[in-house]
Design brief:
single chain; 128 residues; alpha+beta; 4-stranded antiparallel beta sheet; 4 helices; globular
Length: 128
């Protein structure tokens, strides 16, 4: 597959995620009320991860809470709430920021970690 076609796949997956997020937050008479168990949203998260893996040849799944801060995706099942974000490459700085957030509840570290996810061309995920 050509790189432009792969890049298009990740953009399409991201667009589906954005649409699913919009539907998730506007469900229920157009009010901003999230609905639990929205499979379109959860499947869209998985599609973003898989598309990123296809485009970059690898992807790391990250967690701000109790799982490993960064773990390579190796074809394992992606369950709802199993990760908070995905990035196309490993970052020691990102892992350090997450550990600082966890150990010291340093909100600046959390903010910087989220900014770094964006700088690395990663995606913050929203599960339902």
């Amino acid at each position: 597959m050509r790189i432009t076609q792969l890049n298009m796949e990740i953009l399409q997956a991201q667009a589906r995620l954005n649409l699913a997020l919009f539907e998730y937050f506007t469900a229920g008479s157009g009010n901003y009320r999230p609905i639990e168990g929205t499979e379109e949203l959860n499947d869209s998260n998985r599609q973003v991860i898989l598309a990123m893996h296809a485009v970059y040849g690898g992807v790391y799944l990250g967690s701000f809470s109790d799982a490993a801060p960064l773990a390579p995706y190796e074809g394992q099942e992606i369950t709802n709430f199993s990760c908070d974000f995905c990035v196309p490459c490993y970052s020691g700085e990102l892992e350090r920021l997450i550990r600082d957030w966890r150990e010291n509840v340093n909100s600046k570290s959390l903010d910087n970690a989220m900014k770094l996810v964006e700088q690395l061309q990663g995606k913050i995920l929203c599960w339902s």
